[in-house]
Amino acid sequence: MNANKQMIFCDFDGTITNSDNIIAIMKKFAPKEWDEIKNQVLSQEISIKEGVGKMFSLLPSKKKEAITEYILDHAEIREGFNEFVAFTKEEGIPLYIVSGGIDFFVEPLLEGMIEEENIYCNGSDFDGETINILWPNECDVDCDNDCGCCKPSIIRKLVKSDTYKIVIGDSITDLEAAKLADQVIARDFLIKKCEEHSIAFSPFETFYDVMDILKKRKVTA
Ligand SMILES: [Mg+2]
Ligand SMILES: [Zn+2]
After folding, report:
1. Domain 3-220 CATH class label
2. How far is ligand 1, taken at its centre, from the CA of residue 17, in Å?
3. Tell me, what is an example of a GO biological process annotation in this record (predicted)?
């Protein structure tokens, strides 16, 4: 396997971090209406994009620092992630973070580990009374999911026809990316979804597991 033909696309919330940061922010800072919006997203009454936009519009822009600080204090990075980043560098495998999270907490949490140009996530604007989410990675013509941050569109933009695509994720928001992948490394709800859609996957809990999975493949490739 030629290392420079591989690319890794790794989710952030619940994959690199142990739990979901948007949920943590809403639980701590939002008025109780956020819960109803979350339920509408889960029941697919509204798109992820609409739901995330509405949830953050419940939060005053002046809370930016407090929210960022809260996440930096409380978010836990999954075991082995630093070692995994070093591994991809040694192997020369490009590692992209594709996240439905927001820049003002994703980027500080990854600072010093991942270069900003390798991070794809949603943006934010604090000029108004409440937080306005920006969508620099919207769906391309081949996706009509109204994803917000469209993982399949990002993958289509970055790969060449012969790129071996490795997708790492944990949830429903990784499913469309997993469908495009040559190899899926999954945990939690994404495992169930892969099984339902007959997508082959390797399960993981820590990034040491992820490294073992990738090293094993290298030997046999
Ligand atoms: Mg996730
Ligand atoms: Zn999309």
Report:
1. alpha beta
2. 9
3. L-methionine salvage from methylthioadenosine
